[in-house]
Amino acid sequence: MTDSIDLDELDVSTDSDAEKPNRGDWFWMGEGDPDDEADAADAGDDSDESPDSSSSAGDDVTASVNSDADTGADHRAIPRVPRTNDGSPVGIPIEGGGAGGAAMGSASDQEADTDADAEPEPTGPHGSGPSEMTMALTYEAVKRLENPAAAFADAEGWTDWLGIVGDVDAHVITKFQRESVVDVDFFNGTGTGPAERLAGIDGHSMFFAERMAVVGVAGVDEYIAEDSGWEFVPLSTAAEKAGWSLADEPSDPRADGGDGSGT
After folding, report:
1. What are the Cα distances from residue 77, in Å, to 23, 29, 80, 92, 139?
2. What predicted TM-score, i.e. pTM, was given to this entire model?
């Protein structure tokens, strides 16, 4: 009688049953070593070969075709000339030390990108560079204009940017513009002093110009130009040269209620 066999004592495991590492685990999961990937792939190929040396070459080809048909593509690498950087991370451009991917731009392209990131020079209506002239009239000055709309329309012909600044709230200036049919490019808002507003118009502002002048009332508005670094032009001088008519008594929209709101 044949001796009984303990099946638990049989070692039926083969190398082909061992779990194979996935390509790139050393990069994505931090496991293994890139130098071991080629060995692991070779070991996997050897396990698929038949140990029977008496099998013919034709049988080997047939077995390989049948295996592919049953299990699908083997995802083996397509034969090619090896690269010196095959062990480098895939997806990183070669210029950056990787095994390939999106090509990095040339040196000239990189310089162009650097130039594109640089802050552009201020531009004005006359092309590149600063505008020729920016003028700001003080609130005290515009109250003394007999016809503000005509004066501002005239100034638009020989200045690039026009503004109104003063020690008043923003709604006072907007009320004056609405009632006088005047449109300006800038004015100081509530909580921002006139000198602070003008000082903020520097080389990075679209209102920056080669000549920046404040037209104000002499003896009242000089401090705005001094604190902001602008040129001061007395209203009387500007009106005489431009042909603006001045009122005998300045009008003050704040006189109706003290805040220019008209209530």
Report:
1. 11, 21, 8, 20, 79
2. 0.49
